[in-house]
Amino acid sequence: MTYVFVFEVGLAALLLAIAVWTIVVRATFAAIVFFMIYGLLAAIVWVRLFAVDVALTEAAIGGGLTGMLMLGAAARLREIENSGEKPGLPMRLAAGMLCTLISAALGIVVFSLPDVAPTLAPMAKANLAQTGLGNPVAAVLFAYRAFDTLLEKVVLLLALVGVWSLAPDRVWGGVPGFRVYAQPSSILVFLAQLLPPIGIMIGVYMFWTGASYPGGAFQGGTVLAAMWLLVMIARLQPVPAISLRPLRLLLVVGPVIFIAIGLLGFVLADAFLAYPAGYSKPLIIVAEATLTLSIGVTLGLLVAGPPEWKTQQ
Amino acid sequence: MTLAFDIFTVVAVSAGSFFFMAGTVGLLRFPDTMTRLHALTKVDNLGLGLIVVGLLPRAEGLLGALKLLSVWIFVQLAGAIVSQLVARVARREGRHT
Predict the structure, then answer these.
(1) Do the Cβ atoms of B5 and B14 come closer than 8 Å?
(2) What is the pLDDT of residue A182?
(3) Between the CA of residue A99 and those of A92, B21, B28, what are the distances in Å?
(4) Inside any domain, residue A31
(5) Does residue A263 lie in a domain region?
(6) Per-residue pLDDT tens over the stretch A119-129
(7) What is the pLDDT of residue A137?
(8) Contact by Cβ (8 Å): A171, A305
(9) Is the Cα torsion angle A28, A29, A34, A35 positive or negative in sign?
(10) CA closest to B84 among chain A residues
(11) Which domain holds residue A261?
(12) How far is A190 from chain B (nearest CA, A)?
């Protein structure tokens, strides 16, 4: 199996080199591109570690959506960067110190891990049948540690509120200043007409198959968000105003249904987020389906950014 | 029969890898944006195509084979469209070199 070893060492070396380059390179745009490549390579590493669920998330979020968020941030930063204004020495020292501290802390934690990591994996597999699911990762997310998952989704909404709160009062409830590039009848329009039907199907499939195989609400939702963004970039659909009622409903429907199912657990089972025996799989599927929608809309709006115009332009 | 399939896989995947290497050399060595894009899209088409064809005998049934083929088609679609977009920006900004 030496060729596998060579491949893995090569992959790790490449990952390290790209990580270093991401930090060292001066241009913001180049750094973001390298960060996205880093995310895609990290996804391959997760596949090699047999963590396909994590790999899918890393590819969708780390290699895709985060990059898009950062490209948006870079576009906003360009004016400041071009003005030639540089942070002073104390600021740079503080930033450097903070980075060193975080790296050192992470390094200490990683090196002090026990050689044989404590694992709950056998227990997670042993009780899998009770949840009615086939994918132990989905069981962890929606049965064993459902509360964490719930908080995760609420945090996503909080992040969106944080982005929205950057808007000045006069445009509150208006249209996000998402930069749309496509000229009419350009090739991007063609892609935005061709890809979404397939992309939506893949997004729904990823959520659906997540109950039994790698996949899930987050990965599926990210694919849906990507399709929506593509349609908006190509100007096939306008960027919606954030005060739109159906949009707000889509944002909260996932967490609300999840919380409702959780509260139902008080009545029908014995605790918050406990599923009544025999009904766990259908309830989890309902929660995941609505969460997929909410995650897709939330991520799309996160990339679209804070409102900048009062009405449709 | 298995041996024939194995030989086919090795030959096709090796040929695909060769095209990937050639495309990478082209990306690094070609003089301007347009020719570099040309090298990249050829790799998507031929390199990945040969690797997919080579892996087809090893696919799990018809569905697996279709999945492999659709990976190839989508990469081609993305490659063709992105290279068009990059080329358009390069032409507009006059950065041919």
Answers:
(1) no
(2) 66
(3) 11, 37, 33
(4) no
(5) yes
(6) 888 888 888 87
(7) 83
(8) no
(9) positive
(10) A187
(11) 124-313
(12) 9
For residues A287 and A258, the answer to whether their CB atoms sit within 8 Å is yes
pLDDT recorded at residue B92: 82
How many residues belong to chain A?
313
pLDDT given at position A85? 75
Query: What average pLDDT does the structure give for chain B?
Result: 88
DSSP A276: P
Give the integer Cα–Cα distance in Å for A183 and A233: 10
User: What domain count does chain A have?
Assistant: 1
Position with higher pLDDT, B93 vs B71: B71
Mutate which: A179, A181, A191, vs B, most B CBs within 10 A? A191
B81 at interface of A, judged by CB pairs closer than 8 A: yes
Handedness of CA A117, A120, A124, A127 (dihedral sign): positive
Is B85's Cβ below 8 Å from some Cβ in A? yes
Neighbours of A202 (CB within 10 A): 19
Q: pTM for this structure?
A: 0.86
Q: Which residue of B has its CA nearest to A181?
A: B85
DSSP H/E element including A89: helix A89-111
Single-letter amino acid code for the residue at A152: E
ipTM of model over 0.85: no
Q: In the numeric block, which tokens belong to residue A272?
A: 């918050």
> Least CA distance to B78: which residue of chain A?
A191
Tell me whether residue A169 is in a domain: yes
Dihedral sign computed on CA atoms, order A264, A266, A272, A275? negative
Residue listed under structure tokens 């030989």: B7
In this predicted model, what pLDDT tens digit does every residue of A250-274 receive, in sequence order? Answer: 999 999 999 998 888 888 878 888 8
Segments of chain A scoring below 70 in pLDDT: 1, 181-182, 184, 312-313
- Tens-digit pLDDT profile for residues B11-53: 999 999 999 999 999 989 998 888 898 888 888 788 999 999 9
Distance of residue B47 Cα from the nearest chain A Cα, in angstroms: 19
